[in-house]
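Figure caption, in words: inputs first, then the predicted bound structure.
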Amino acid sequence: MNPFSNLGIRHDIVNAISELGFENPTPIQEQSIPVLLTGSNDFVGLAQTGTGKTAAFGLPLLELLDFEENHPQALVLCPTRELCLQITNDLKNYAKNMRNVNVVAVYGGASISDQLRTIKRGVQIVVATPGRMLDIINRKAIDFSAVQYVVLDEADEMLNMGFQEDIDSILSTTPDEKKTWLFSATMPSEVRRIAKKYMDNPFELTMGEKNTGNANIEHEYYVVRARDKYAAFKRIVDFNPEIFGIVFCRTKIETQEIAESLIKDGYNADSLHGDLSQQQRDKVMKRYRERSLQLLIATDVAARGIDVNDVTHVINYSLPDEIENYTHRSGRTARAGKTGVSIAIINSKELGKIRQIERVIGKKFIKAEIPTGFDVCEKQLFALVHKVHNVEVNEQQIEQYIPRIMAEFADLSKEDVIKRFASLEFNSFLEYYKNAPDLNAPADDRFGKERGEGGEKFARTGVRGDFTRLFINLGSVDGFSRGDLLGYICNTTKISGRTVGKIDVKGVYSFFEVPHDEVEKVQSGFKSADFQGREVRIEIAGEGVSERRDGGNRGGERRSYGGNSGGGFRRDGGNRDRDNGNRGERNFYNGDKRDGGNSGGGFRDFSGKRKEDRGERRRRF
Ligand code: AMP
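Bound structure (adenosine monophosphate present):
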């Protein structure tokens, strides 16, 4: 039996949601549906977006209303047009096997006469944004005297957007006996106040800790100098070839500038902000949903109500002014049980803000390092290898060329062919990134301010303050994220996760910090360890690790780990600051997707007008 039936949902609805892929209720559905189905409680649900809350209130509404009657019985208020359309659409999908279910979406920026006409024909459920709803009420075009249920969805967002008075006016037209169900991602005092004002001894449900972000989100921050922010941001994006992200800026101007620069630099990006017409916003959102955009650059207000699944990264290009907004931003990733990363790119003065956010979300940020140019090359190379491995071959089309291709490669071994093919791209990456500067804020800026003394010492010896930095010959190509590596280290060595300091997962290796007195335990714990048949190597960073791990072929170009003590990229960064240069032709492997018309792969000639472009960018950011 489908578990939704056990919760008390009728057969035809269960069939419809099964088709949507709802096999098991999400935690909020499991806990709220039985309560709401009684129809006799006010309800407060503290839940993030993406937890399945639409069905949590939508399914009980479909069970409780009388669809033989054709007047408004339920009103759902939500902050944005996007969310309004989404909820309406979801309800219609859940009800697709039911008869006589009429739902109307009432929102601004669209023809009011169509909405009035639908209302006149008769509806049982009204899903609305407050402004337009009030407009319709003021025209006396709707009768809420028989409303039994009011849902306030994303209540905190509605209050943030200044809808308090509108909500008061709207609710005053509904009967006192109605039941009110409130959902909110956070519970600031204003939301508490409306809960108190409109509800009578509500049933309260908290998914996770109060005001806590989704447990599936990993929070990271990078410390960079203000002038390197844009370049650092691009490096992070380049290091994540499969990124499908939302980038938050503080102002419309910043949003537009970043988007324009990214487009110019060959990325698939566009902006979403309040100065766009509704039509333009819809167009951008359509492209993002369809994934022809990889990066959506948005302001907080414009991004409200965006509920695209599978967002891999939220990037805080600028931290929000209001800390609460960080929760809303990061909640755009890790939806529907998936995992996601929320990244903040900050300068050293903003560390205090990170600590404040940590207190609000009840979770620690991981301090991350901007990848080196070489790290990016390595990551992109393996992304390419992976892509080639998984590419779908059109046997029919390719067949006719195979004899000629084989003849071309007749004098080469399989290994040679692979090497050449990989080098085709890899050589251009190396060329592109060969003098890429270290973009992490200098050690004295970061370590000094953050953890007291010891930054310089650490750079040379692997010993900083109370921590020793250790090298391990496992990394992202072995499938490790920071969290995985932490788990692996703790399981293998039996040291506590809390004692482990910073973890830097690189491509084929990683670094992690442990207190000095734990070093021996870690080393002996890993003594006989192997990973998938490979010996696991642990070394103290700074004891010749860098030369060896790079296998000799990259040592010269790579910045020395953990520090900026003059070597590596920084040396020649001055004359070839490529990350700041014009990257109109940047193209990794996704030429077709990323910059339409600029396909052909690889990095091409970046010389040209690099200097002027850098000047421009510097002025702007
Ligand atoms: P919501 O929080 O209501 O916006 O839901 C987030 C996403 O999760 C939507 O794409 C839903 O279709 C999906 N979803 C909701 N409930 C379930 C479920 N029980 N099983 C699978 N997916 C679900």
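The pocket of adenosine monophosphate is lined by residues 20-22, 24-26, 29, 49-55, 307, 309, 335-336 (CB under 6 Å).
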